[in-house]
Specification:
Mean pLDDT: 90
Helix content: 10-25%
Strand content: 15-25%
Low-confidence stretches: 1-39
Structural class: alpha+beta
Shape: globular
Largest sheet: 11 strands, mixed
Radius of gyration: 23 Å
């Protein structure tokens, strides 16, 4: 797909919340050529940073944030952010926040045990115990009805459960299994080996319930350095690269035997703001200062020149598509550096004489920014830094490894946080409830919370009776977050870029990286 200079998202609606039984469509049969080509194949993919060692992710080995196809959820996220049945053959909403799932028959775990309702209950209970769930589930949420039927009900009002269960966090694991060590699941690939900071290897599940993977073996190599990944691809040491930096696209696409592919936009570059910062990081509690920052950043130039067209103009913190016709309710803060300067003056941050950095009471206006490791292009960080410098704000960038970044984020040791959050489920209020809602279980929310009005709007979205109402209420909450409170600044929707050897076939890039599916991929000889 050739990049566009500026892209507008289509405001297409999503599938309405299913209140009746739904059936899964069977996958199409693969070609005889692909079947023959698959025998004995191994695909090696460069995956950047290894984030499985982080506290939040260690119980999600092979699931999140890198999905290796080892485990599967009850329902799956489609490319257009809809819900389709998967391990659950059908579901029905029974009222009072409860969904009843009927499991697919004939599914077995990698160790041969049969998938049953007790497996689902174990998975939900495990996600609660390890605090990896975000759907207000508790130890009473999953109730076994019979061997093939299970009811799931959040401990607090949340009618968005169905749309959230597509997340790999809720992939079903075998009873008694510790996925932090050796995940035993039902997926098209089975776990082989994980060496921290080096590689994760899986192999084809020959007893898979559905269409078997075309690859025999799949290895993800953790190579944080961009140049190292590119050299390895050119040398033939691997066949694919995840998340190619925009700055390296031109060099790779002009290399013989390498193809550049892009996923439809499923992520947005977001500048998170410490609205509830403490001590040295309390300055952005001032809404005038937050709005001045938003007004100082020229987002169109960011998309057109810094991202080289591999981006989209957006006002929302997730792809506008998920809000449907209501995305236009979120207008964003317009670029106005002159207005930003006036706001800073009103807030008491002035520039005297030839001073380049504003100050107040002898204190310089210096802010600390941390950036998501391997997720944010350095050029984007430098661009934001330069834009703020033009209005007299000194932004100091601290580049951290994943563990240090997580520690600083959860400890509130930042003013600004630059990340590229993915739309990982079918719920338009997903990121809103996860990152800025004061009752979220995410630790950093204590420093990012957008206030009581926003909380009320999120709760209205989570209790919406149908999908259109959900979209409208989520848009209302996002309007408060972005337009009124300026607790977050969406900078650009982005394409996810992959570099592939020309031998790679059948790769269908998913807009949600964490829901990428590998079983259709095969290698030409």
């Amino acid at each position: 797909m050739a990049p566009h200079r500026v892209v507008s998202f289509a405001l297409a609606g999503l599938m309405p919340l299913a209140l009746a039984t739904c059936e899964r469509r069977e996958p199409a049969a693969r070609s005889a050529h692909a079947t023959r080509a698959a025998e004995g194949q191994e695909l090696v993919v460069a995956a950047g940073q290894d984030e499985f060692g982080l506290e939040l992710n260690r119980h999600r080995l092979g699931m999140y944030p890198l999905n290796a196809g080892v485990c599967e959820p009850l329902v799956r996220l489609t490319h257009d952010f809809r819900v389709e049945p998967w391990l659950a053959a059908r579901w029905a909403y029974r009222g009072d926040g409860t969904y009843r799932f009927t499991l697919r028959q004939g599914v077995r775990f990698h160790d041969g045990r049969v998938l049953d309702a007790a497996s689902v209950k174990y998975t939900i209970d495990h996600s609660v115990a390890t605090r990896t769930q975000y759907s207000f589930l508790d130890e009473h949420s999953a109730q076994v009805v019979d061997d093939s039927t299970v009811d799931i009900r959040p401990g607090r009002a949340n009618t968005r459960l169905l749309e959230q269960l597509v997340h790999p966090t809720y992939a079903i694991i075998a009873p008694g299994n510790d996925p932090a060590v050796h995940p035993i699941c039902t997926g098209p690939f089975r776990f082989v080996e994980y060496v921290r900071q080096d590689h994760l290897t899986v192999e084809r599940n020959e007893s898979y319930w559905g269409e078997k993977a075309k690859l025999r073996r799949l290895t993800f190599r953790f190579l944080p350095d961009d140049n190292t990944r590119a050299l390895a691809l050119r040398a033939g040491d691997l066949e694919a690269i995840f998340d190619v930096p925009r700055s390296m696209v031109a060099g790779l696409e002009h290399t013989s035997g390498i193809t550049i592919m892009t996923a439809p936009p499923g992520a947005v570059i977001v500048l998170y703001i410490a609205t509830r910062g403490r001590g040295a990081h309390a300055r952005l509690a001032d809404p005038m200062l937050r709005r001045a920052i938003a007004m100082a950043i020229d987002r169109r130039t960011l998309v057109e020149q810094v991202l080289d067209g591999y981006g989209a103009m957006v006002n929302t913190v997730n792809p506008p598509t998920v809000l449907g016709q209501y995305a236009s309710r979120v207008t964003g803060v317009p670029y106005d550096p002159t207005g930003a300067a006036r706001l800073l003056d009103r807030a008491g941050w002035t520039a005297a004489g030839d001073q380049r950095v504003r100050s107040k009471g002898g204190e310089r206006l210096t802010l600390t920014l941390i950036a998501q490791p391997s997720g944010v292009d350095r050029a984007v960080t430098e661009y934001v830094q330069a834009q703020l410098a033009r209005v007299g704000i000194d932004m100091r960038v601290e580049r951290l490894d994943p563990a240090a970044f997580e520690s600083r984020l959860n400890g509130g040791e930042f003013d600004l946080d630059l990340e590229v959050p993915n739309q990982n489920d079918a719920n338009p209020a997903f990121l809103l409830a996860l990152r800025w809602y004061s009752k979220s279980s995410v630790k950093s929310t204590a420093f990012l919370a957008a206030g009581p009005r926003f909380d009320d709007a999120v709760e209205q979205a989570l209790s919406a009776p149908d999908h259109e109402t959900l979209q409208r209420r989520a848009a209302d909450a996002m309007h408060i977050l972005v337009d009124e409170e300026v607790a977050a600044i969406p900078l650009a929707g982005i394409y996810r870029i992959y570099a592939m050897s020309s031998r790679v076939h059948g790769f269908d890039p998913h807009p949600s990286k964490t829901n990428q599916w590998w079983s259709t991929v095969w290698l030409a000889k």
